[in-house]
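Recall from the previous lesson that a structure prediction takes nothing but the amino acid sequence as input. Here we apply that procedure to XRE family transcriptional regulator from Burkholderia mayonis. The sequence below is the only information supplied.
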Amino acid sequence: MDFSDRLAMLRKQRGLTQQQLADRAKVHLVQVNRYEAGASRPAVDVVKRLAVALSVSADALLFDEDEYGPDEDFRLLFNGLRILTDQEKNVVKSVLEAILLKHRTSACKPVITVTEKIASIDITAPGKGGEG
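The prediction returns the following tokens.
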């Protein structure tokens, strides 16, 4: 599905007319019509406004679901990373990197030993990544 089809589909799913979408995204009605007809492509700032107006990510407008990012469960978790401290984000990143490395190097052997090892690390203890 291309951009024009995704834009029209998302607009209709939300029960919006082209005029309502144009008003919300602060673009002219003629432009929304041209975007949906495939006669014009929006600039990056307009894609952002369209995404906000439709309450979707810009990725949802630009790519098919299988072409971008994690599935919905992981997307919600990743969005939750915003509230973590930099140290906590580094721990999450290290855990993910370790699991992916274990998967690549061990041809589908369980990763539980890696995650158990990481989970046992006390990041608050002095000399072990904590602030102390």
